[in-house]
Design a protein that fits this description.
- Two copies of one chain form a homodimer.
- By secondary structure, the first copy, chain A, is mainly alpha-helical.
- Chain A has two domains: 52 residues, Orthogonal Bundle (Arc Repressor Mutant, subunit A); 151 residues, Tetracycline Repressor, domain 2 (Orthogonal Bundle).
- In chain A, helix 4 runs parallel beside helix 7, helix 7 packs across helix 8 and helix 8 packs antiparallel against helix 9.
- The radius of gyration of chain A is 19 Å and the shape is elongated.
- Chain A binds a DNA duplex (30 and 30 nucleotides) through helix 1 and helix 3.
DNA sequence: GGGAAAACCGGACTCTCGGTACAGTAAAAA
DNA sequence: TTTTTACTGTACCGAGAGTCCGGTTTTCCC
C-alpha cells in the first residue's frame, strides 16, 4: 500500500473540505458560506463549483471523507490493541484506553463529529446524505457488536444486557462527550467519559 | 403555588418560541428564518421585533425557557423517585427508570436538546448565550454530583471513580442517546441508553 | 512540444434574509 | 376612560447565498 501523489485538483478539493469541516463544526452547515470557503482557499466561486455540484454535494463529500477517515482510525486502533492482547475482552479494554489517549492528544480538543453536527440540521440535507449518516452509525454498531459477541463467549456478562445497546453506547459516549467538552471548553472531559465507559465494560464482563 | 393566566403577549411569545424550537432542532438556528416563524405564528415582522430585540435575543429566550423547563422536569422526577425510596442509591435508580419511561412516552421521540444543538453552532451566538449553555451543564453536574455524594456515603463504589465524571455521564448519555435515536430514527434507543447507564450505576455501587 | 483534458477565472443575476424606521391602530388592563 | 400592551402596514436597505455561462489558464500525457 503506497500513497499516490494528489493531483492539483484533489489538493484543492481537500483544502476546501478541510476549511468546510472546521467551519461547519463551529457554525453549522447553513451559516458556512461558500464565499468564506473560497476566500480562505484562494479560489473563486467558479472554482468551487467545478469541484462540487452544489452545497449539498459539499455536505455529502465532507461526510463521506469523515466516515472513511473514521474507519481508518478505528481499524488502526483495533489492530494496535489486538497486537497487544489476544483476549477479546482485554483487547477491547486496551482499544478503549488507546482511544482515550488519542483524544487526550488532540491539543485543542476534539473538533467535533460531523454526523452529530448533521443530525441537528438534517432537514437541510438531501435524503441520501441523511441515509449516509444512518449507515455510518450502523457500521459502528456492527463493528463493536462483533467485538462484544466474541467477548461474551468467554466472559458471561454480570447483568443481562442487550449487546446492541452496549455497542451503541460507544458512539453515544463519544458524541455526548464531545458535546460536554465543547460546552464547558474542557477537552479532558471527553477522554474521561471514554475511560468511564471502559469502567462499565470492565464491571460488566470482569466484575469488581 | 398557583398558575397565573398568561397575557396575550406572553401567549404569542410562547407560540413563537414553540415554533422556533421545533424548527431549530430540525434545521439549525441559522436556517430558521424569522419570516417562516411569523408566517406560522400568524403575526407580522413588526410583531416579532416587539417581542425580541433581534435573532440572538430569540436564541437566548429559547435557551432560557428550555433550561427552566428542564429544571422543573428533573425536580419533579427526583421528587417522585424520592417519595418511593428513601435510600439515595435506590432513589437514584428509580429516578433513572422514571427518566427512561418519560422518554419512552414521547410519541415521536425526543425532539432534541437545545444545548446540544447550540453547541455545534456556537459561533453564531453572543458570548452570554454560550455562557448560559455552559452554566446549564454545570447545574446538571452539580445536581447529580450532590446525589452521588450521598450515595457513596452508604455504598462505597466498586471502582475508584471520579464522581464529577459520573455526574457528567448523565448528560453525556442523554445527549448521545438523542443523537443516536435521531440518526437511526428509532426513539427507543434513547431510553435504552438511559437504562444501560442505570446498569452501570447498579454495578458500580451495588455490584452484580 | 503540442493537443486535450483538467482546473480554474470573471462577472452577472436572482432571491432571501436580517434588520431598521416609523406611523398608526385595536385590544386589553388599570 | 385612560393608558399601556400588543401589535399591523409599508417601505426600505445592505449583505450574502446559490447558480449559471462563457472564456482562460494550467497541467498532464503522449
Amino acid at each position: 500500500m503506497h500513497i499516490q501523489p494528489l493531483t492539483k485538483g484533489e489538493q484543492t478539493r481537500h483544502r476546501i473540505l478541510d476549511l468546510a469541516e472546521k467551519a461547519i463544526l463551529q457554525k453549522g452547515f447553513a451559516s458556512t458560506s461558500i464565499e468564506e470557503l473560497i476566500a480562505a482557499a484562494g479560489i473563486t466561486k467558479s472554482g468551487f463549483f467545478y469541484h462540487f455540484r452544489d452545497k449539498n454535494d459539499l455536505a455529502r463529500a465532507l461526510l463521506a471523507r469523515y466516515l472513511e477517515r473514521d474507519e481508518v482510525i478505528f481499524n488502526d486502533l483495533f489492530a494496535r490493541a489486538d497486537a497487544l492482547h489476544e483476549d477479546p475482552l482485554h483487547g477491547f479494554l486496551v482499544f478503549l484506553k488507546l482511544l482515550a489517549d488519542l483524544m487526550s492528544d488532540l491539543p485543542n480538543g476534539h473538533p467535533g463529529c460531523v454526523v452529530a453536527s448533521y443530525c441537528y440540521q438534517d432537514q437541510l440535507f438531501s435524503r441520501d446524505v441523511r441515509e449516509m449518516t444512518a449507515e455510518g452509525v450502523r457500521i459502528w454498531r456492527a463493528r463493536f457488536r462483533q467485538r462484544l459477541d466474541r467477548i461474551v463467549e468467554k466472559y458471561p456478562p454480570k447483568l443481562d444486557v442487550d449487546l446492541d445497546t452496549v455497542a451503541h453506547m460507544v458512539a453515544v459516549v463519544i458524541d455526548g462527550g464531545i458535546i460536554l467538552s465543547k460546552n464547558l471548553s474542557e477537552p479532558r472531559y471527553l477522554p474521561q467519559q471514554v475511560l468511564m465507559f471502559r469502567n462499565f465494560i470492565r464491571l460488566l464482563f470482569l466484575g469488581p
